[in-house]
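Q: How do we represent a protein-ligand complex in a form that can be generated token by token?
A: Start from the inputs.
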Amino acid sequence: MTTFKDLGVSDAILKALDAEGYTQPTPIQMKALPIVRKGRDLIGLAQTGTGKTAAFALPILDRLNANRKHAGEKSCRTLVLAPTRELAAQIGDSFRSYGRFLGLSTAVVFGGASMFKQKQALFRGVDILVATPGRLLDHVAQRSVRLENVEILVLDEADHMLDMGFIHDLKRIATLVPKHRQTLFFSATMPEPIAELAGQFLTNPERIAVTPVSSTAERVQQAVIHVDHAKKQDLLHHLLDTDPAIVRALVFTRTKHGADRVVKKLESAGHPAEAIHGNKNQGQRTRALDAFKKGNARLLVATEIAARGIDVDNVSHVINFDLPNVPEQYVHRIGRTARAGQGGLAISFCAPDERAYLKDIERLTKQAVPVMETDLSLRTPSAEERAPRPKGTGKRAPAKRAGPPGRKPAAQKHHASDAHGKAARKPSHARAEQGRDRGDRRDRKGNEVWSNAGPPRRLKRKPSRA
Ligand code: AMP
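Then emit the structure tokens for the protein with adenosine monophosphate bound:
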């Protein structure tokens, strides 16, 4: 059986891994370590939960340690780009843990936190800089960081970066790092735009793939409950009251307002819960996450994007209060309960107008989600009812907007580059960060999907369905 030692990991890191309780490399670590050690560029098709952070962090730490030198003032030797604050913070923590006996320096910069403190951290130069693209470009613009000494560049969750509108920022960053460098590129999926992006960053890369997006689903037990929108909250309370196995649950809603509303009602029903989404400031997000990690809150209610990169052990249940309209998101969500090979249960609430989403998910995961019946369930729909198709077109009818009857219908799509008014004149990275914090509704191409809220500058208007 291959061990970390067989993969050439140094003694100082082996000691740290021992302290972390890692006894054996995961498949992606076995594949990636030898490639990264050779200095080759790499495309890794892998999602969070597979151990991909260590797959790039361990060989990077060893390489930096084997050739110790000062990065230079306001510079870094390794740059890791991540789409969200949480993921960036988590990657930074991983570098610090794995490298705790090496004495290398790590800094993490992301939006929503003090520029001043980040500038101080960058001033003397660092070995490893983990950054979200927008904030990194803010630092570049203010000359608090220079990228010309980057030896190794990592792009993590590239598909998610694209979803969040970071494409222009990434292209700009590509012009600021040296041509002669090693690049490691990770993505859970590889649709055409991601492959194109990879082509711009990588030189003659080696490719590895582990746990294709559909197979995470195999480790997680799944169930769907067909229920009316109006009864979803009661259903949630019912599950929490009657199922003691729900020890620590992540509840996903599609929108930020939805998350807040669910938390409010949970709390008034005596279920302590925390919310985490883009409208919360960094302090609130950290506090919510800590309360959940320490077990002070049994429930964390989150939107998709805020939950990316959250690495909490022993999440017993993922509850999809709303089904995501992008099927890959479902797999990401349920993967939060199957960390590092553990199992878990994912329960999805499916309203009649979300059945087409369910069908998409089942097509992606190549498995039917078993139906769970409760007192609040609707009659189990037939196969036709799950994905109604307009006659003659062969195409599935668009799912109607979720929401109580009587509200305005029709979801409209606006491409991110269609931004109107002031928003359109902002630098692209400012727009992307702004967009990320504004809402999590995007279609599979990364276009923003608005309900009836209109163009971005009118965002303060209450969305019709929150
Ligand atoms: P990641 O995919 O990097 O987000 O890692 C998912 C989880 O797996 C994290 O909690 C890691 O600490 C954990 N992990 C990574 N590698 C190993 C390993 N070789 N053995 C046990 N746990 C691991």
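The longest helix spans residues 52-66. The chain has a mean pLDDT of 80.
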